[in-house]
């Protein structure tokens, strides 16, 4: 029994195997596999997005394409007119003028690309939920950066293509360039966008990673340095202008163009673009291909440097943003809030509080006002520089045409800015509207407060831009008053349209304002706004310039302006009143009928 019991007894259990204290790290997928995965993802997202856009939003898609085509055609027409005027009159140093204008254009567009790409890239890398998800996956940091970088560059450069390509095509048609000039243009533009995009990516990564905790103080010092440098450069330009007033015309032009030596430096990408395009226009293939190779090689090198930096600092920068204590920030009053409250003194106190609330939301988000100041600064800079041409009777450029372009550009800026920032206000407050419902105000009063906030800010910005630019251009009193009335009507009318249509066609399912803007309601609002500003500018400002060209008073003698040139002003005022009353009335009724 004992032997059998011992035989049937189970063997002694083996001691458990203890897991190692530090498990081996999971190897990341190879670089090639990650690139293929993201390429398939990008292709599938693009395909599904186009299919959904075509199936559920044909009107929106066609409207966006048609609007882009109209803008491109308008830019082409103005550029062709300018090229024809330049080569029709015997202007000295035509090639020098065209080269300087191209240098300035590419430098300006490149600077705007740096800011716009940086803003989009910051939002994509550090605040988007998708970035948080991707950083929890085995995807490498530089691969996540590459995906976001490509999307940001593609999104920010479409306007560069729409503005740059028609200008260059108009120059080619007006001067009779060889056939290979046109195929080279897309290659130049696509290669050029890599450089400002990579520079903005490097600035974004380094600022987020190494900016001191006291960011406000650091940004203030950075702003002071930029203002000092800008003032020093402006003083040099003005001093050079005074020295060239009595110079011969050719020397005068050379002196004026010479003030932009920075954008004409041989090491600047804008000058590479100008050299290559001008060489292609002159029929020099070798001279056109070499700058193209330089642009692409430097652009790709800058992209590789940005990706290398992202692989080493992106995760650390993201952790720094995530753990920066943003939730503990205490917001207090500001002197700008008191200024805004004083500007709307005529409103009752509850409505003033709502206006100041919307203003605080606007001023606390730099992405909302940065591009407005960039565009305004560029326009004033251009007006300052062109002023010297007019004082010295260079008739190739008509200051009335340029001032009308400033009015149109300011109006388009208002249309785009208000569509982006004012139209989504009601939609963004939809889920939290019950908080506003606790206030002792009617819903129509809330809507009116948003209209006053939009109209006050847009009128101040638009009038400042247009009055300063017209004064710098030396416009006479008649056109100046007409321009001021025009942009005032456009600002107030677009404010009424955006606030009213935003309440009439809200989108409470989205929390991202950019998605609300590109939705059906945002597209309809943008199209109606563009039609409105075209009508207002056409009936209020265009007759003044038509009369100037017809009567030949380009020197600014306002006494020769016929009365019929001002006949469209009452019609424009009526259009502005309708654009305010009808949308606000419809939006107020729709908002009153909603249940939250």
From TrEMBL:
Keywords: Membrane, Transmembrane, Transmembrane helix. InterPro entries: ABC_tran_2. Residues 1-20 are annotated as: Disordered. Signal peptide: none annotated. The keyword Manganese does not apply. The chain crosses the membrane at residues 61-81, 101-128, 149-173, 185-208, 220-241, 288-310, 369-390, 402-426, 447-468, 480-504, 516-544, 564-584. Coiled coil: none annotated. Residues 9-20 have a biased composition (Pro residues). This is ABC-2 type transport system permease protein. It comes from Fimbriiglobus ruber. The lineage of its organism: Bacteria, Pseudomonadati, Planctomycetota, Planctomycetia, Gemmatales.
């Amino acid at each position: 029994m004992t032997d059998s019991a011992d035989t049937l007894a189970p063997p002694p259990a083996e001691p458990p195997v203890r897991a190692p204290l530090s498990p081996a790290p999971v190897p990341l997928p190879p670089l090639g596999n990650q690139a293929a995965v993201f390429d398939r993802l990008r292709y599938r997202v693009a395909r599904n997005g186009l299919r959904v856009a075509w199936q559920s939003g044909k009107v929106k898609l066609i409207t966006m394409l048609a609007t882009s085509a109209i803008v491109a055609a308008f830019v082409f027409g103005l550029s062709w007119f300018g090229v024809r005027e330049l080569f029709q009159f015997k202007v000295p140093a035509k090639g020098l003028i065209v080269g300087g204008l191209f240098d300035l254009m590419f430098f300006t567009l490149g600077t705007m690309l740096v800011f716009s790409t940086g803003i989009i890239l910051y939002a994509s890398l550090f605040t988007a939920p998708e970035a948080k998800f991707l950083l929890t996956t085995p995807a490498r940091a530089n691969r996540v950066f590459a995906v976001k970088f490509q999307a940001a560059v593609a999104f920010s450069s479409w306007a560069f293509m729409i503005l740059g390509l028609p200008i260059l095509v108009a120059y080619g048609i007006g001067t009779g360039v060889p056939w290979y000039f046109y195929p080279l243009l897309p290659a130049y533009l696509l290669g050029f966008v890599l450089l400002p995009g990579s520079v903005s990516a490097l600035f974004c990564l380094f600022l987020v990673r190494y900016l001191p905790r006291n960011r406000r103080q650091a940004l203030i010092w950075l702003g002071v340095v930029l203002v000092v440098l800008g003032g020093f450069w402006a003083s040099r330009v003005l001093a050079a202008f005074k020295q060239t007033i009595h110079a011969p015309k050719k020397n005068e032009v050379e002196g004026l163009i010479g003030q932009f030596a920075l954008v004409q430096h041989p090491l600047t990408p804008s000058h590479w673009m100008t050299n290559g395009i001008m060489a292609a226009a002159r029929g020099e293939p070798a001279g056109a291909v070499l700058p193209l190779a330089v642009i692409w090689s430097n652009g790709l090198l800058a992209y590789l440097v940005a990706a290398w930096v992202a692989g080493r600092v992106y995760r650390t920068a993201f952790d720094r943003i995530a753990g920066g204590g943003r939730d503990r920030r205490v917001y207090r009053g500001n002197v700008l809030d008191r200024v805004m409250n004083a500007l709307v003194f005529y409103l009752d106190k509850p409505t003033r509080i709502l206006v100041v609330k919307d203003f605080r939301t606007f001023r606390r988000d730099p992405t909302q006002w940065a591009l407005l100041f960039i565009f305004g600064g560029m326009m004033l800079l251009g007006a300052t520089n062109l002023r010297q041409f007019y004082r010295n009777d260079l008739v190739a450029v008509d200051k009335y045409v340029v001032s009308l372009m400033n009015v149109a550009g300011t109006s388009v800026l208002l249309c785009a800015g208000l569509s982006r920032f004012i139209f989504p206000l009601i939609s963004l407050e939809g889920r939290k509207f019950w908080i506003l419902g606790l206030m002792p105000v009617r819903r129509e009063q809330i809507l009116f407060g948003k209209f006053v906030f939009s109209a006050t800010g847009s009128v101040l910005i638009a009038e400042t831009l247009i009055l300063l630019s017209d004064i710098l251009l030396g416009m006479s009193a008649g056109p100046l008053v007409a321009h001021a009335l025009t942009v005032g009507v456009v600002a107030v009318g677009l404010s009424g349209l955006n606030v009213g249509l935003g309440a009439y066609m809200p989108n409470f399912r989205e929390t991202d304002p950019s998605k609300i803007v590109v939705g059906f309601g945002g597209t309809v609002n943008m199209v109606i706004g563009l039609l409105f500003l075209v009508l207002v500018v056409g009936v209020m400002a265009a007759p003044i310039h038509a009369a100037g060209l017809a009567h030949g008073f380009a020197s600014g003698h306002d006494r020769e302006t016929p009365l019929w040139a001002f006949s469209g002003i009452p019609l424009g005022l009526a259009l502005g009143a309708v654009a305010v009353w009808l949308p606000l009335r419809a939006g107020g009724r729709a908002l009153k009928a909603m249940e939250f």
